[in-house]
Design a protein that fits this description.
The chain is α/β, with parallel strands linked by helices and 106 residues long. The chain has a single domain, classed as STAS domain (Transcription Regulator spoIIAA). It has three helices and five strands. It has a five-stranded mixed sheet, covered by helices on one side. Helix 3 links the parallel strand 4 and strand 5. Helix 1 runs parallel beside helix 2. It starts with a strand and ends with a strand. The model has no long low-confidence stretch (mean pLDDT 92).
Length: 106
Amino acid sequence: MQKDVIFSEIGDTLVARIQCDVDHHTAKHMRESIDAMLLNRNPDELVLDFTRVDFMDSSGLGLILGRVERASSIGAQVRICGMSPRIMKLVKLSGIERIQGITVGK
């Protein structure tokens, strides 16, 4: 079975590459994995890479928002990238890009 999140580090940046669709079935484990790595590595920046994600529902928005809150608690910024046009539209409609401490890119 393939992991749902693959991690790598580039300097003080922790990259979490999401490997599957994000819905209520997958989001919980992703949250736990990312939070554990955040606390263990204490990066300056967390990058959530959605390149391999074809579908995301409101659970994905919760995943992003929760990681922004968790990252902020350790002084880290969050950048989300690799979003398909469909996921980008969902993120923009939610207003996530207006939250302090997060950068949204393609």
